[in-house]
Amino acid sequence: MADEILDSHEQGEQVRKWLEKNATSIVVGLLVGLLAVFGGKRWTESQIAHRGEAMAQYQQMMSPEIDDETFNAHYLALTQSYSDTPYAGLAALAKSERELNQAQSEEALAGLRLAAKEATPEGVRVIANLRLARALIAAGQADEALRQIDALQTAGFKGAIAEVRGDALAAKGERDAAKTAYENALSYMDIGAAGRDMVEMKVADMSAVATLVETTAPAETAPAAAEDADEPATEAASTEASS
Amino acid sequence: MLRAIRETLSGWVLIVIVVILALPFALFGVNSYFDTNISNYVAKVGEEEITPADLTRALNNERNYYRQILGEDADLSFMNTPERKRATLDRLVDGELARQDAENAGITVPPSRLREQILAIDAFQVAGQFNGDQYLRVLQANGQTRAGFEESLVDDTLRAEISNELRASSLITDAEIDAHVRLRDQTRSYSSITLVGADVSIEEEVSDEQAQAYFDEHSADFMRPEQVMVDYVEINADQLVAEQQPSDEELQELYESQSLRFVTPEQRLASHILINIDGSDADAERAALAAAEAAKQRVTDGEEFAEVAKAVSADIGSAEQGGDLGWLERGITDPSFEAALFELEAGAVSDPIRGADGYHVILAREIRPEQAKPFAEVRAELAAEWTQNRRELAFNEISGQLVDQVNANPKSLQRSADALKLEVKRSDFFERGFAPGLFADASLREAAFDDLAIKRNMVSEPIVIAPEHLVVLQVVEHKPTEPKTLEEVRAQVTAAIQGERRAEALKLRAEALRERLVAGGESLESIATELEKTVNTAETVVRTAANQDPRALAEVFKLSRPGEQPVRAVVELSPQEWLAVELTAVADGDPATLDQAARDAVRQQLSNHWASLEFNGYLEHLRANIEIDINEKQIP
Known about the structure:
The structure holds 2 protein chains of 2 kinds.
Chain A lengths: L1 H60 L6 H14 L4 H16 L3 H14 L3 H17 L3 H9 L7 H15 L2 H13 L8 H11 L3 H18 L3 H12 L1
Helix pairs in contact in A: 1-2, 1-3, 2-3, 3-4, 4-5, 5-6, 5-7, 6-7, 7-8, 8-9
Chain B lengths: L1 H7 L2 H18 L14 E3 L2 E3 L1 H19 L11 H23 L6 H9 L5 E2 L2 E2 L1 H10 L4 H23 L5 H11 L2 E10 L11 H10 L5 E2 L2 E10 H4 L7 H10 L5 E2 L2 E9 L6 H19 L4 H8 L3 H4 L4 E5 L6 H7 L11 E3 L2 E11 L2 E2 L2 H34 L4 H8 L4 E2 L3 E2 L10 H7 L2 H5 L7 E4 L2 E11 L2 E2 L2 H34 L4 H8 L4 E7 L7 H7 L10 E8 L2 E11 L8 H30 L2 E3 L6
Antiparallel strand pairs in B: 1-2, 1-22, 3-4, 5-19, 5-21, 6-18, 7-14, 7-15, 7-17, 8-13, 9-10, 9-12, 11-12, 16-17, 20-21
């Protein structure tokens, strides 16, 4: 025990010496640490304020009955100073919609291209791509729309992608492929979904001449299946049909 | 050892160490050391947990919502299914996904937006204005803290922000509207004949072997549902004291004891002019009195009371209406005001009266004297109440006794009924899903098919099926679900087999016809003549044409467009109906015929379609990117 106490005492002395020798480094280290913590806090606060401004700015831009000039001023501010927030992308989408309604197709496409490349978060960017593709189809550029859609890499949006692809193929006159795409889109929709009948209409419209072939084709297999069915019924039917 | 440490750690060494240890607490707070870490979540989305309490709250909100729509007494048991709860949980998960996505993407709700939202909430307003005290009161009444509430508002905003803004900028091209209108308003011209089961003849005879084979194969379709027969005792207040009538003396007594009910107290239609007292000294008092007297003088000098009130009254609420206070009874207003008002003659104006808030000059515009209804007028009403009252008493007494008896004899309804001289009735066999008569009441059937009632033959609890109407029942016999015998369902089996034969024969026939129409190129007209069928012709009909069979329309609108030749097809409408059709013309709808409103309606419809595609796609994308763990066992 006595040894241990002595040892501890000696150790204490060593600690004291070590502390005396390194006092400056310790103090400097502490100061640097404190600065980092407080600086970080300040930075976070300014970041929060910055993001809040973006939302407020966007809200103003979207207020109803805003004139074009003010709208564009807000848009510029959002895309230039707040491109690190989702509002830059959302603003580009809103601007494109406004321009499309004013028949400014070129400007709208430019805005959509920007959003399709740079919007955040990823979900918004995919939607920008989908809208760009639809606007391209409307502008008669179905090929580019298809390339746009095919280049998309996402785990979601399966139904929307399929329908846009169908629209692009239909615009190109590739009816069979369009029909497959629409059927694919239907498979991702709920049975009761509101837009289902619209897509079903598109499917039927793409059925084209293929219907003829399809309705006649089962006729070849159906009698074969019916043969091993009910004997008396077959007899009755064939006598009736030939009469 | 410890002592050694204590001895060593003295003076400034100790201080340095303590400071180092204390720093993290000072900078980051003590909270993070107390975070509980019990994982009883129903769902975990990324690092965030959704607790059973969150889910319960969401379910309650939904329940309240449906109660508001469907009424207080609505049957909300459909809310309790596991599927329903899972759907609600999925909604919470979706919301949390969207919230995290928005937060990670750098969306922050600024205080100005939060403020706007709070100011707009009706519950926090007093007289159309936001009121800070009201805000805190309402929160307290709902057991919420201000910080908690504001945080939940921020979360709500984050959940909805991106999808709302995407919806706001939802884009629909003119080409899409045109394309939709072309399809939607498309018209088609066609002629058709319908082949039906009666057109074909079949072997009608069904042998016993065939019937047996069909019966064996479809045994699940021929089950008798479980049934019970019950004994029951019914107590209905309507039948309890039907013959008793109250005497005149009893009613007279009732009338006197409740005389207040039949008296409408005196009412006076009053207006007033209020003069406030600005200050608390005698001068202010005198000034106010002088002003009030001046106001009265103006009225006595012939000015309209209402005009004077408008000009000088300090009661802003009534001054606009010419001082009108409406009809007043005693016991509503300030005592001194009331005393003065009820002394006035109709049309008279009082001297200034000192009330709690200043001097009033009062005008009694009209007087409705006290009105009492005489006994004769309310006799019938009282008699009905008396009878009802007796019924309730009698009902309560006998039902109380019945409950005691049932508790004492839980296995014999007969014994309870005998003790109270009540009649035991016996029902017919009835099913769980439906029964005629008394047992049309679902709560009775539920009690009759209760496990305890069937397996242990217990007498049921009293079941109240209407006010003052209850039933106690005991199961006499229970027949479990059992297969019916072939004899019982022979007619049904025969019909089913004949139906199948007919469908098959008809199908063969339709296919033969298709061969001739489609491949052979024969016209529908000639085939119709041969089959002696009337041809249905439809000229330029739309998809929703009311005068055509909707099933036929659906098939016709799937056919391809005719060119030189009409398009012919034979399609199945049902096993007993086939349609042979010749499509001669297709004309697309013309977008140019739509007016602006109709076009906007299409735009809105398409916009909803694409917005929901985008939104669902977005969630699908988030689900694939954020880890979700559902803990089914914790669903309450």
